């Protein structure tokens, strides 16, 4: 019987090689752990080589017989680093089938005119261009094999305004539109490309928002961050499970979507691919007056 996601012990990623960026901590680490549990071979990336090696060693100690766990210290905003990462994955993993673009930064907080330009640009370089560079490097390999899975991490910045965090919001919205566009471009070659909104997580990014203070991020957002810190935030394991689903055969043909780990019924999407294929569900779109029942001519 075909394994389903309802069975957490099912080796949904057995025989699949997955690259996970930003894997040294937080959500990236949770994704790597979930992929390992699902049977994947892994190539992990992060800028902090020391911390990354600790994560690699920990995962390798829990790996099943025959599972491979590699690590490459890399900055996804640097083309040479990305090429080195993907080359290591191609040569070191039995079969490269998936990429998770999780590496990201929270960016500067404050009014646009008061934020440092270099920090603003750096946010775009890591969150958007880093995602594009990694995709650009793996897509030719996936096209050759006529199969591949790409998961790009997005977030609230893609679906709602984020005042005083304009760089982060712009980068994440751009990631979603890039995801949708690449999905169409690569569909004929069997490559699925999706974006994940993981929910409000208690990670290093939240700590940076709290450290910035209400004068930089705004009183409402700072108060929301304080509440989130106290209440625990969304589950990173839930987002990691969604990534496993999107990297597995259960999601074959599901592409070009922004899916919320917290709010969307993603476990049931295997049976809804045909309906999704002809709809704009889980996509970014422009809302017109007619959509809201307004006759403005």
Q: Any descriptors?
A:
seven-stranded parallel sheet; 7 strands; 45% helix; alpha/beta; 297 residues; Rossmann fold; 10 helices
Question: Can you put this structure into words, describing what you see?
Answer:
The protein has one domain: Rossmann fold (3-Layer(aba) Sandwich), CATH 3.40.50.720. The chain is globular and about 55 Å long. The chain has helices at residues 26-37, 49-62, 79-92, 117-145, 166-186, 204-212, 214-217, 219-231, 236-247, 273-277; strands spanning 17-21, 41-46, 69-73, 96-101, 148-153, 191-197, 258-260. The chain has a seven-stranded parallel β-sheet, with helices on both faces. 45% of the residues lie in helices and 13% in strands. Helix 1 (26-37) links the parallel strand 1 (17-21) and strand 2. The model has no long low-confidence stretch (mean pLDDT 90).
What Rg, in angstroms, do the CA atoms define?
19 Å
Could you tell me the mean pLDDT? Answer: 90
- The name of the CATH topology is Rossmann fold
How many helix segments? 10
Structural class: alpha/beta
Find the count of extended strands (DSSP E, 2+ residues).
7
In short:
By secondary structure, the chain is an alpha/beta fold. The protein has helices spanning 26-37, 49-62, 79-92, 117-145, 166-186, 204-212, 214-217, 219-231, 236-247, 273-277; strands spanning 17-21, 41-46, 69-73, 96-101, 148-153, 191-197, 258-260. 46% of the residues are buried.
Sequence-ordered SSE layout with sheet pairings:
Blueprint: E1 17-21, H1 26-37, E2 41-46, H2 49-62, E3 69-73, H3 79-92, E4 96-101, H4 117-145, E5 148-153, H5 166-186, E6 191-197, H6 204-212, H7 214-217, H8 219-231, H9 236-247, E7 258-260, H10 273-277
Parallel strand pairs: 1-2, 1-4, 2-3, 4-5, 5-6, 6-7
Helix pairs in contact: 1-9, 3-4, 4-5, 6-8
């Amino acid at each position: 019987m075909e394994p389903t996601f309802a069975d957490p012990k099912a080796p949904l990623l057995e025989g699949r090689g997955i690259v996970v960026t930003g894997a040294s901590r937080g959500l990236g680490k949770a994704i790597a752990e979930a992929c390992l549990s699902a049977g994947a071979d892994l190539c992990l990336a992060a800028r902090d080589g020391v911390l990354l090696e600790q994560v690699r060693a920990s995962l390798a100690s829990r790996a099943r017989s025959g599972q491979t766990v590699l690590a490459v210290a890399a900055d996804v905003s640097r083309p040479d680093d990305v090429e080195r990462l993907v080359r290591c994955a191609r040569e070191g993993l039995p079969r490269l089938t998936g990429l998770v673009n999780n590496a990201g930064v929270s960016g500067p907080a404050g009014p646009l005119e008061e934020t440092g330009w270099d920090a603003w640009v750096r946010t775009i370089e890591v969150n958007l261009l880093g995602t594009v560079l990694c995709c650009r490097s793996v897509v030719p390999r996936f096209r050759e094999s006529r199969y591949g899975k790409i998961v790009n991490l997005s977030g609230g910045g893609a679906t709602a305004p984020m005042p005083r965090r304009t760089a982060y919001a712009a980068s994440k919205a751009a990631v979603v539109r890039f995801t949708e566009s690449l999905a169409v471009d690569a569909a004929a070659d069997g490559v699925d490309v999706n974006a994940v909104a993981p929910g409000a997580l208690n990670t290093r990014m939240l700590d940076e928002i709290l450290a910035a203070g209400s004068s930089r991020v705004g009183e409402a957002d700072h108060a929301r961050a304080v509440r989130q810190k106290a209440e625990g935030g969304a589950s990173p394991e839930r987002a990691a499970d969604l990534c496993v689903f999107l990297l597995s055969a259960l999601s074959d043909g599901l592409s070009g979507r922004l899916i919320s780990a917290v709010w969307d019924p993603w476990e049931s999407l295997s049976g809804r691919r045909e309906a999704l294929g002809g709809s704009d569900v889980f996509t970014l779109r422009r809302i017109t007056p007619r959509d809201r029942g307004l006759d403005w001519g």
